[in-house]
Every structure is written in C-alpha cells, then in structure tokens.
Amino acid sequence: MQSLHILVNVISSFLIGWATDRFIPRVPLLAGAFCVGLSYVMRGRVQSLAQLYAFYSIASVGAGIFWSLPLSTVQRWFIEKRGLALGITLSGIGIGTFMWAPLATHFIYSAGWRTAYVVMGAATCAVLIFHFHTGAEKSAALQAGGREFEPRRPCQKSRG
C-alpha cells in the first residue's frame, strides 16, 4: 500500500508542478481537497481490495497536491525570510497530521471505521474548501511582505 502511495504521490507531484505554473494555487488545492475528501468517503464504502487500492490512489493524488503545491507557492510569495516561511508551512502540515490521528482514532472507536471514514471525508472537504474560499492564504502572504501570485505564461515562439 505504501509503495502505491509513493508512486501515485510522485506522479501527482509532477503534474501539480505543471499546474502550479499555469493556475492560481486555489484551483489545484480545491482539486486536492476534493480528492482527499472523496477518497475518505469512498474508503468507507469499500467492498474489495481493488476498490481499496483505487480509493487509496485518489488520496495519494490529493496528498501530492497538499505536499508540493504549498511549498512552491510559499517560495513565490515570500522574498524575504523565505526559509522561515517554508519552515512554518512544513510544520503546519505536520501539526495537521499530528492533530488528525487522535481524532480519527476517536471516530473509529466511537462510530466504526466505515462511518468514521465518511465523516472524516466530509469534514476534510468542508474545512479545506471553506479555508480556500475565504482567501486567507493570500492576505496572510501579502501582509507578511510577500507578493501576489501571477501564473506564468507559456513562452511564445519567436518569429524569425
């Protein structure tokens, strides 16, 4: 299972690198929220090993987005103290994981694993979509001396 996760995560990181150059960060992050939330809900309904692998792969795509996109975005937004901004971003990912584990354990013990996965999927989608809908990430970066994101435009061929 871990090998599948790493393989899909690496592939999705390449794709998200491409998307980062072409879209504002909110677009791929919403796609990642959808992938992670959907995979939780679907894993709560899994009926076969093949379905488990497929739904876990969807989660791995979302994980690739959540890992690579914030790092590339923070590097663009912060000119001064870029290392500090990256450190804070990475610690936020770790803190989120650290906090989610006991909540997941509680949900599983209190409601069963199938219901817990559905609840966690719905909660993940709701929290992430709400956060990115508010635009909080952009205003925080601008207040900290960063710059606004501008998608890169493809290079034009010279006429000669």
N- to C-terminal separation? 53 Å
- Strand count, sense and closure of the main sheet? none
> What is the top-level CATH class?
Mainly Alpha
Could you report the average pLDDT, rounded to the nearest whole number?
A: 80
Short summary:
The chain has helices spanning 2-20, 26-43, 49-77, 82-111, 113-134, 136-143.
Would you give an account of this structure?
The chain has 160 residues and is mostly helical. The protein has one domain: Growth Hormone, Chain: A (Up-down Bundle). The protein has six helices and no strands.
Keywords, separated by commas or semicolons:
160 residues; mainly alpha; Growth Hormone, Chain: A; 6 helices
Give the helix/strand layout.
Elements (H helix, E strand, L loop, with lengths): L1 H19 L5 H18 L5 H29 L4 H30 L1 H22 L1 H8 L17
Helix pairs in contact: 1-3, 2-3, 2-5, 3-4, 4-5
